[in-house]
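Retro notes, structure queue

What went well: the backlog is down to a handful. What didn't: a couple of records were mislabeled last round, so from now on we paste the full input next to the output in the thread. Example, using PTS mannose transporter subunit IIC from Aerococcus christensenii:
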Amino acid sequence: MLYYATMAFLVVFVCSALNYMTGQSMVERPLVVGLVTGLLMGDMTTGILIGASLEAVFMGNVNIGGVISAEPVTATTLAVTFAIISNVEQQAAITLAIPIGMLAAFVVMFLKNVVMNVFAPFLDKCARENNQKGIIFLHYFTFVVYFFIIASISFIGVLAGSEPVTQLVNNIPPELMNGLKAAGGLLPAVGFALLMKLLWNNKLAIFYLLGFILTAYLKLPAVAVASLGVVICVVMAQGDLQLSDLVASGIQSKAGSADSQEQEEDDFFS
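Corresponding output:
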């Protein structure tokens, strides 16, 4: 069990830290975290499936200022780990990931608003004294401490919580397990609804209707619908480029005609 806990720690630490080191490269998204976790845990298929489902759940979550809606890295890592080592149903694991993400979000907010502020006076002192080495040391030291604490949540959760989770799953009545599976199936729809609430307008409504028809009536898989969406985006982008070229050429022609008319007037009066 120590191996699985260590792997969970590494996944959270690397994915969270690498995302900030590379400038928001989206390495912390559930789709990537689920893939990496499943690969290290020995079941990449389960990791991809749970990561893709949680990507839909957390897609509409937006962190504004100091308010963090959920922490997807820890939630995805623990959900995939418990699904693999404790034989938890995938839909039930998705349902369990939501409170885990909320709990991890509280820890992250506490770290940002309380723990990291402890180092602020030392940073101010180094800045006043122009101590560049001290500033660099504090930068990397707090970086490691911050992500080490976040990754420790997954380590402790797997090390101390795998056995209780296994016993809990074994004692769950079939009716309750079916309810958890049904709730897990509905959560991606909630995630898409949150995203639509942010992006919805009348121009995008037609594409939502198109996607609904393709999936509900034509029974196309998600990959086919996504590929069709890429084609539509490329066609629209090309149309916008052509329109901008026409506008630019129209402006240039008007400017050229105005210059020629002015030149004719100058020649007439000269």
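Agreed that this is the format going forward. Reviewer comment attached to the example: The two ends are 96 Å apart (CA to CA).
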